[in-house]
Amino acid sequence: MAIDLRSDTVTKPTEEMKRAMVEAEVGDDVYGEDPTVNRLEKLAAEILGKEDALFVTSGTQGNQVAVLTHCVNGDEVILEEDSHIFNYEGGAVAALAGVQTRTLASDRGTMAPDAVARAIRGVNIHNARTRLICMENTHNRAGGAVISPEQMEAVYKVATSKGVGVHLDGARLFNAAVALKREITDFTRYACTVQVCLSKGLSAPIGSVLAGSREFIQEARWWRKKLGGGMRQAGYMAAPGILALTQMVDRLEEDHQLAALLAEGLRQLSFEVKPVETNIVLVHTERAGMNALDFLSRLAEKGVLAVDFDENVVRFTTHRHISEQDIRTALQAIEAILHA
Ligand SMILES: *Cc1c(COP(=O)(O)O)cnc(C)c1O
């Protein structure tokens, strides 16, 4: 079987998750009658330090529902230029929310607070209304980079002092909390709303949660329905989500250790590797004398899978199905490519 380092989304549910799915108590969630979904939403709200939460089909749906709920047509949203919302959601903020995007450069995913302050438009008949700022933590394209609570606080203060909302794309926020050994609420307190994925390193098969104020989530529920996200006996999917939040967070540390091991091995082979803070390793392929796609096809022949991130950059992502031996095997495969 291939050593699949393409993404932490390839993780399959645990045996306990599968049992919880089969045994879940369910009802019609569009009527608010699915006890397992209700339990997941209450638990997620508590863990994330918000009044309420909403179970959504995917991280993308969570982010899009958030933008739709925060904004009206023609508003402006400030996004980090390498963010998932801007790059990997099919242009949905334009297509669905009808918002104008303003992108800012960053230092490893962290936007400078003074740049954010300058980007917020004054209230003037000529201007779009700056309604929302989105942060992403950990930051995928920056290589799983962690934004510290203090860095988030600085941006949050700038935004909220000017009446601008803050949404956190926390697809991998638990990785940030584990990496810094901080509480998840140390991060979420600096966002009005937050989306976290249950289906990445946390291993649930499906879904994300969006958390925020009671009033916000009430409105978000309406947008989720419009997007076709009103699910019926969704408790079968919420049950593994509960286990994701209660049992799968601490083990993310193991993924981080394996990513560090992989990065160290690559550096020993003289590859240029971006700083590794969590479970993502970005490596330049020039050392192998080839571009990312050629490198990936050589690697795939040897049973190791990863994804291209740039013409000459490959991303490896560690997760629950990867062992220390897999990392050693992958490094041997890479070394063999160098010597071929
Ligand atoms: C994966 C991811 C998402 C979207 O999640 P899906 O469930 O794949 O839609 C959003 N933001 C970031 C940073 C992600 O890595």
Automatic annotation (TrEMBL):
UniProt KW keywords: Lyase, Pyridoxal phosphate
Location of the Aromatic amino acid beta-eliminating lyase/threonine aldolase domain: 4-286
Molecular-function annotations in GO: lyase activity
Pfam family, one: Beta_elim_lyase
CC cofactor: pyridoxal 5'-phosphate
Annotated EC: 4.1.2.48
PANTHER family documented for this protein: L-THREONINE ALDOLASE (PTHR48097:SF9), L-THREONINE ALDOLASE-RELATED (PTHR48097)
Family, as annotated: Belongs to the threonine aldolase family.
Name this protein carries in UniProt: Low-specificity L-threonine aldolase
